[in-house]
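FAQ

Q: What does a record look like?
A: Structure on top, sequence underneath. For example:
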């Protein structure tokens, strides 16, 4: 606990992540684009990573990653950070903590506006991805999406399915999924974490690793 507290206060902005976490990468990129240079701690690279994750949970970090601290105080995870940025308060928090010195007034107003729109769409994707234990982003005409959904049904899981071609924000959502590391649909999330597309899901199933991963969550998703 003490080591985590020390790391959380070593710089004005600190982010605890995992190297395989796509959403963590998005949050780091946001801070860099705002002009901040946060301290990054990928705890899966620490020998005591599990203890650090437990300590973060005790500090109120749930989900654990990314865990963002500004001025030594826990601010939240990805959804909290993006919401703060969309309403304009994140930049001020970083300035107050002296994590950034340059203001966004240097950006052209139209670029800033478009950037905020992108963040709203990313927030929507993250919110949907964590709405249930198992979430599939798909397209209504995608046969592979259908096959993956059937696979989950056959192992007793009713996934929440979001057909992005039937969503007015579908194109931007697809771009967000690509930035998170998924090159195509279906994009499958378990416990809010991106697992991958068809190949990754089928590979996990064939190796006998998919069901144990699902059992890590007490409640199965509902459509």
């Amino acid at each position: 606990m003490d080591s985590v507290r020390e790391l959380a206060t070593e710089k004005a902005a600190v982010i605890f992540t995992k190297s395989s976490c796509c959403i963590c990468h998005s949050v780091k990129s946001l801070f860099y684009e705002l002009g901040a240079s946060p301290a990054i701690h990928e705890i899966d690279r620490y020998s005591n990573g599990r203890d650090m994750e437990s300590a973060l949970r005790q500090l109120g970090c749930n989900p654990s990653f990314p865990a963002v601290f500004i001025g030594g105080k826990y601010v939240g995870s990805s959804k909290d950070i993006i919401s703060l940025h969309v309403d304009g308060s994140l930049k001020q928090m970083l300035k107050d903590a002296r994590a950034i010195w340059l203001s966004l007034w240097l950006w052209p107003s139209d670029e800033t506006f478009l950037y905020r729109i992108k963040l709203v769409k990313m927030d929507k994707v993250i919110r949907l991805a964590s709405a249930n234990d198992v979430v599939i982003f798909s397209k209504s005409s995608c046969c592979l999406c259908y096959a993956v959904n059937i696979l989950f049904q056959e192992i007793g899981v009713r996934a929440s399915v979001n057909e992005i071609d039937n969503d007015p924000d579908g194109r931007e959502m697809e771009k967000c999924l690509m930035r998170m590391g998924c090159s195509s649909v279906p994009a499958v999330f378990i416990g809010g974490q991106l697992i991958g597309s068809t190949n990754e899901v089928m590979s996990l199933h064939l190796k006998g690793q998919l069901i144990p991963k699902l059992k890590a969550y007490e409640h199965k998703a509902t459509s």
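Q: Is there anything notable about this one?
A: The CA atoms of residues 53 and 115 lie 32 Å apart.
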